[in-house]
Amino acid sequence: MISLLLQTTIATDPDDWSIARFSLLRDFLASRRDAEGRPVFAVTARDRDPGPGPDSVISTLDASAFDEMWLFAVDVGHGLTAEDCDGIRRFHERGGGLMLTRDHMDLGSSLCGLEGWLGRAHHFHSRNEEPDQRRRCIDDPFTASILWPNYHSGANGDYQEVRIVAPAHSVLRDPGSPTGWLRYLPAHPHEGAVGAPPGTDARVILEGASRTTGNRFNLAVATASSSGGGPVLAESTFHHFCDFNWDVDQGSPSFVSEAPGDGMSRNPDALRSTRQYVHNVALWLAGALPGAIS
Is the pTM for the entire model greater than 0.85? Predict the structure, then answer.
């Protein structure tokens, strides 16, 4: 069985993007069964410890039994201590798989504390800005308080059609799609920015397109063997995995002001596609081949 950790970078707060708001992801992964009916994943979902200082789990991740960690950087810049970053580095070096995601502007910029390409794959407003200065501008004009990067792929609750970057990565296979490859992911009004740092074996595998400007932007960056470490996926926004973006009836924190859409509920294939992607990612990070889901 694959041991999987779903982890946020904030202490539990019912009016924030705490781990409870990723319950549909948790329950889906926990529901997966192999051909003999045995659970595929043992899922642990938690927020970081309250108070200052290193987190008891993240800072010692390399000594844990986890095969992979999905890190939802939902902090405003101070969600990881130096000890936490060191624990993640050692975990990666011992072969642990990592999915690292954040959101718009500087949300989740604690990821910049990670060594090597792990931190450099994420671009923020004030730290590790996008190398192309032409992209340092507002893409989502509707929420005036949020500055770049803020790529507008659609409303929360809607879906976006994605573009696979050749050569197609195995994590994007979708036997249920007419093309055999991933077609949809949840949309979000202001996604963050990810890129493949020069001089690494990381590469962009998936792109989206802005609903406001038409500009293409990176959705996912992946590597299978970064400097001998475990596989890593850098994602442009945690909203691809959030309850509210899979089903708006699950609700959101009170500070979310944008009107939601209903595309995910109107197109069941969008949610099926998203679940296939999640299933593939969880297997790939553990060194297994992606497969179809029922």
Answer: yes
